Amino acid sequence: MSALTRRLRAIGDRLAGDPYERALARGAKEGRRRVVFFWNRGLGDIALGLTPMFARAAERIPGVSIEVVTRADLEEPFRLTDARTVHVVPGLARGDRTSAVEACARLPADPRAGALAIDAPDATRWLAYARRPAPPRLHWNPAYDALSDPLIDAGDPRPWIAVHASTETARHYDYVKDWPADAWLALFRETARRHDVRFVLLGQGRDPPLAAPNVIDLRGRTGFLAMLALVRRRCAALVAPDGGVLNAVYFLDAAFPITVVSLWSDPRQGLLKARARSPNPGLVHVPLVGERDDVRRIAPGDVLAALDI
Questions:
Q1: Are strands 198-201 and 215-217 parallel, antiparallel or unpaired?
Q2: Are 178 and 167 in contact (CB under 8 A)?
Q3: What is the pLDDT of residues 218-239, one digit of tens each?
Q4: What is the 3-state secondary structure (H, E, C) of the chain?
């Protein structure tokens, strides 16, 4: 979207009022008791953008049932929100230009029927108009902790450090979000010379290859909830670029000690832009911004120092 388009849209919003507020007011007036969101964008915006929007819907329409139409890999993340029902669209993938109408046509019945349909949620734009948006948070059910049991080696006393090496969404942005593979390998080597710890690779994509003696590669071997349970129960720290895993751990509403070292090219994005606090009182956040807004300029030694091990 061009800068001119954004300015014109902002002017229109100021003249007509908050577009999301208008939609909720219309839903309340029409007696809608269900709000159905279509979401085929990123994981990171679920906590940062959608959970405050869900809270706002519940405030404006008491007793509302919030539902989501989405792709399969986001079903587990939405379990941590106030969504009562998650409709998974068969075959839907991120990047598809499928509309809400087309996606719902693949379901046995259209959940949008009779509901207030939010087909293209624009959390960044709409939350800008909220005076006191609800804080982002993901609700943790302690029952999920058991999902990490097969992943934990109870006989290994060494600290584990979680690593999300790739956001797996680089093609959707016009700047570099991921730290280079050689930087990760340098961090692993330097840490091995000083400390006996294990780095645990998390996420789904297996690239880039990051084999090292002090690395356990669990990429593609865990579900989303099992991954969070592992971080919560076993990991002393997380190192991650701006992305969905970072946001999920940062906004998890559960008390556990963890140091989060985040890696940034653009500090005017994500949770740094929102200046949002973590609901976890035991979380220590150390953001590192690359020189000249380039994550590749963050030195491995700076990450090691931030881990404070």
A1: parallel
A2: yes
A3: 999 999 999 999 999 999 999 9
A4: CCHHHHHHHHHHHHHHCCHHHHHHHHHHHCCCCEEEEEECCCCHHHHHHHHHHHHHHHHHCCCCEEEEEECHHHHHHHCCCCCCEEEECCCCCCCCCCCHHHHHCCCCCCCCCCCEEECCCCHHHHHCCCCCCCCCCEECCHHHHHHHHHHCCCCCCCCEEEECCCCCCHHHCCCCCCCCHHHHHHHHHHHHHHCCCEEEECCCCCCCCCCCCCEEECCCCCCHHHHHHHHHHHEEEEEEECCHHHHHHHCEECCCCEEEEEEECCCCCHHHHHCCCCCCCCEEEEEEECCCCCHHHCCHHHHHHHHCC
> What is the distance between the alpha carbons of residues 106 and 114, in angstroms, rounded to a whole number?
18
Max Cα separation, the chain? 65
The pTM of the whole model exceeds 0.85: yes
The rounded distance, in Å, linking the Cα atoms of 211 and 69 is 37
**How does strand 138-139 pair with strand 160-163?**
unpaired
